[in-house]
Amino acid sequence: MKSKREYKTLDRMVYFSIIEKIKSGELKPNEHLTEERLAKELDVSRSPIRKAITALVSEGILDYRTYSGVVVRDSMIDSAKYAQLLEVIEVFIDATIQKMKKNKTQLDIDAFRNYIASMDRSSYLQNMEDYIFNQHQFFFRILKYDPNPYYYENVKRTFFTINNFSMETVVKQGSEDKRDLTVKKFTAIADAFEANDYDLANERIQSLFADFALSAFRE
Predict the structure, then answer these.
(1) What one-character DSSP code corresponds to residue 6?
(2) 32-33 and 69-72: which strand pairing?
(3) Pick from 51, 58, 66, 63: which is nearest to 17 by CA?
(4) pLDDT the model gives residue 119
(5) Residue among 107, 212, 109, 116 nearest 162 (CA)
(6) Burial 101-119, CB ≥16 within 10 A → b, else e
């Protein structure tokens, strides 16, 4: 874990410290949390604790319960839960693409291709964090074309949960050849958008998500 000095603010340090405690199993589902306890464990005042807890509640990682106060939610993601979350993301992307098709939305194809190029470069450098980041940015770019901010915010929250709480056996990026194939599939999606073939783009996205889900169940 980083030292306090490596975080821009104390509440961010507390925020990520709580996440790490949940991921490591130190904090278990339904466990009760108090500001006093966290302040003592992390050697900080209650103010950053309060801010971090508020942020984690809004993201569904912690929960406020009557008579119990703040408790840890069961956030860890196995293969089945991962597949369910991908279905949620698909619903919002599908709805956005249907609106794009109806409105004949003109897309910034170069922006999509820039994300793909960054994905390809990150794969070659084996920078998996950046590789995943650019995958998500590709989908966020689609959702930004929808005037309903609820779509973007919910998918952003879902990806956050996947990134931080997926079990190690769930989200696999595979070999470089496998990643190259994934990059080609993203390119095919961008090609369909460039041709204004929204249905084909949507079909290719659904196929890509099916691949992601299937990969989670493989040993």
Answers:
(1) G
(2) antiparallel
(3) 51
(4) 96
(5) 212
(6) eeeeeebeeeebbebbebb
pLDDT averaged over 10-residue windows placed end to end, the chain, 219 residues: 54 90 90 91 92 90 87 90 94 97 95 97 92 96 95 93 80 80 97 97 97 82
Q: At 20, is the secondary structure helix, strand, or coil?
A: helix
Of 186, 176, 110, 97, the C-alpha closest to 144 is 97
Predicted pLDDT at 176: 86
Q: Using a CB cutoff of 8 Å and minimum separation of 24, what contacts does 78-84 make?
A: 78/167, 78/170, 79/169, 79/170, 79/216, 79/217, 82/162, 82/166, 82/170, 82/171, 82/213, 82/216, 83/213, 83/216, 83/217
Q: Which residues contact 194 (CB under 8 A, 6 or more apart)?
A: 107, 109
Give the strand order in the sheet containing 32-33: 32-33, 69-72, 62-65
Integer Cα distance of 201 and 145 in angstroms: 15
